[in-house]
Design a protein that fits this description.
- It is a single chain.
- The protein has helices at residues 20-28, 32-44, 50-60, 73-84, 86-112, 116-125.
- The chain has 126 residues and is mainly alpha-helical.
- The protein has 2 domains: 1-75, no CATH class; 85-126.
- Helix 1 packs across helix 2 and helix 4 (73-84) crosses helix 5.
- Residues 7-61 form the Phage shock protein PspC N-terminal domain.
């Protein structure tokens, strides 16, 4: 069974303590440094339950499967988009397919028209 790319995982390769902040950063496509800074700043400013939530997430979340570390940058960017905004990603993929279909129809229309120059070139190739 392949690993789900839309699930939250602890990022053990980029971890500092348990991999929670780097997992959050990986999930949303952010820089882990800013997630760590935000956690520390929020804890200092009085959101004292964040360390407890951090420990609960560290205990309950699964580590990221090794197969997901070897993804290309394009794959990572695509799956981050799917996690963060699935409807927008579906819309973008549909638009890309519609554009490819339109271009293919244009090519097909050009090739199947009564273009005598093109027909002569095709006959010369035979």
């Amino acid at each position: 069974m392949s690993a789900r790319r839309t699930k939250f995982y602890l990022d053990k390769r980029n971890k500092r303590l348990a991999g929670v902040c780097s997992g959050i950063a990986d999930y949303f496509g952010w820089d882990p440094l800013w997630v760590r800074v935000g956690l520390v700043a929020a804890t200092i400013m009085g959101v004292g339950f964040l360390p407890l939530i951090y420990l609960v997430i560290a205990f309950m979340a699964e580590p990221k499967p090794l197969a997901l570390y070897d993804e290309s940058a394009d794959d990572r960017r695509f799956w981050t988009g799917v996690r963060v905004a699935p409807k927008r990603t579906i819309r973008d993929v549909n638009a890309a397919f519609r554009d490819a279909d339109r271009r293919l129809r244009d090519i097909e229309a050009y090739v199947t028209t009564n273009n005598s120059k093109l027909a002569r070139e095709i006959e010369d190739l035979r």
